[in-house]
Amino acid sequence: MQDIQTILDKETLEFNDIVILLKTEGEEQKMLFKKAQDIQLNYVGKKVFYRGLVEFSNVCSKNCLYCGIRKDNKDVERYNLEDEHVIEAAKFAHENNYASMVLQAGERSDEHFIERVDLLLKRIKKETNGELGITISLGEQSEETYKKWFESGAHRYLLRIESSNKVLYNQIHPNNDEHDFESRLSCLKNLKKVGYQTGTGVMVGLPWQTFEDLARDILFMKDFDIDMCGMGPYIEHQDTPLYEHRNVLWPIKTRFSVTLNMIAILRIVMKDINIAAATALQAIDPMGREKALRIGANVIMPNITPTLHRKDYQLYENKPCTDEGAEDCGNCLSMRIELADREVGLGEWGDSKHFANRNK
Ligand code: 5AD
Ligand code: SF4
Ligand code: FES
Fold this sequence. Notes:
By secondary structure, this protein is of the alpha/beta class.
């Protein structure tokens, strides 16, 4: 096996290098983390940017086999926040200098929903004097809808590819037109074309996923030239079809550790993008997000969803912060960021430097 340091000293990491790095543990993993940390400090610095997260509805028209709020899960209490509550959350983010928010919900593409989001975007912009940056994460939509929302004020979009391996993608989604790998890809292309800072990501430790799949995911992100990434460990949910295959999963600690390796490698491969410290990391390790911030992640999403509905947005089990309010999470995170020897970039949009660089 090649010496890890020799690999880390290379100008460009090839597929085989990435596979080896993904498998590192112990001392070798520390070397990987050190390299990622150096690159982070050099290219994006110590700053960590907040994106206040509002999960405004758990109504979803899709049936992803891994997700707790999939349409066919009848045990979920469905909710839809009132517009006023979404606006209040946006104001909270603005007043507390978060500078940006994320609007997330289950996927819907009916006319009513599209219009509602459009109006929300316009209102948020208006009520925050255009100062609050808005990221949206509302799944697959037509190019026209993406354009409409962009023109109404959203400027970043997150759409995870979940896995860049089409075979695995089909194993974790129902096989029908609504869950088509090619459609997901064409949505990602459209997002870039419309002008969004475009983010994607994958779940790490899915059933049947291999280190080679994950290495290809990293190269997919590089080839696609993404601006942002959010990736987290797969965490099984007992009310989903994929739960049946939990016997083939890596142990939860491995999924956690390999997610950190993914973040560190991605930081080395794509030096100036924004990488989020996913909340799912904290479902496994109480210090999960801090660990990610130290080794490459530079974005964090404090939950600002009104507490009443948080417990109903359980994509996976053990989701943290379901009893806390927006203030609690804000205070808790600023402390955590300090513990990770990072600084909160309050009052700054913290846009992807990569996006600025690729548009020069
Ligand atoms: N474990 C981890 N992440 C999940 N997601 C959905 N279900 C799970 C799960 N069981 C992630 C998907 C989706 C994002 C909104 O949440 O990657 O894109
Ligand atoms: Fe719906 Fe998203 Fe869950 Fe899929 S992952 S079922 S689209 S909320
Ligand atoms: Fe929500 Fe710590 S981030 S309570």
